[in-house]
Amino acid sequence: MSDTLSPRLRVMLLEDHILVRRGMELVLKHDYGLDVAGSFCTPRQLFEALKQDQPDVIVTDYALGATETDGAKLLRSLHLHHPRVPVLVVSSHCNAATMAVARRAGAHGFIGKTEHESELILAIRAVAAGRTYFSRHLTDLAGSINPIDRSDEPGKDLGDELLDTAKLSAREHEVLRCILDGMSIKAIAQKFSRSITTISAQKHSAFRKLGLCNDHELFKVRYQRG
């Protein structure tokens, strides 16, 4: 149980899957030191609320609906307009590459949706205290020892080794992630407000860097590497 004399942390949630969002709300409401200051299913709703209120922490999904802004673009916008509010990403895209892109875009923490509820509470408290917090599972994959408070450590961001090997840009990575989610080039172009030609070029550039020839090889590599 949290110290009831300590200030309660106010958290805003952004998650487009209602059952997941309701589940996180219940977890937070059962912690005596946390309050849900707002719960939203679209970035627009969140940004409207942030005009009137500033929480202690924002908890957001990384990949929202196909028609919504998500991923690095959302995090960059939050960092630009609300730089003093730490952002924790809770995502089903739980891999070192996505975590590294999120970190570079302004995320203060990143955990997977398969983590225990206690991990969510620990992560929220860590980023609220000005530390960084990354899933132990992901930091283990990236060769890290301690998932909590890496802000003072020298060297590369978590997962940089993977990104350096692939040499993918943030946009190329997002395009491949969407393809792995089953989205078409046209749908990806609509999602990120880019032309089909641009998305296609980013896809082929990523394929070239990874030594892939087609979508089948991309999916094959994904399943081989887990």
From TrEMBL:
Q: Which PANTHER family match?
A: TRANSCRIPTIONAL REGULATORY PROTEIN RCSB, TWO-COMPONENT RESPONSE REGULATOR
User: One of this protein's Pfam families, by short name?
Assistant: Response_reg
Quick check: keyword Phosphoprotein in the entry?
yes
Q: What is this protein called?
A: DNA-binding response regulator
One GO molecular function term of this record is: DNA binding
User: Which keywords are on file for this protein?
Assistant: DNA-binding, Phosphoprotein
Q: For the HTH luxR-type domain, which residue ranges apply?
A: 161-226
Q: Which residues carry this modification: 4-aspartylphosphate?
A: D61
Span of domain Response regulatory: 10-128
Check the record and name the InterPro entries matching this protein. Answer: CheY-like_superfamily, NreC/VraR/RcsB-like_REC, Sig_transdc_resp-reg_C-effctor, Sig_transdc_resp-reg_receiver, Tscrpt_reg_LuxR_C, WalR-like, WH-like_DNA-bd_sf
State which gene encodes it: gacA.2_3
Looking at the keywords, is Phosphoprotein present? yes
Instruction: Please state the span of the N-terminal signal peptide per the UniProt entry.
Output: none
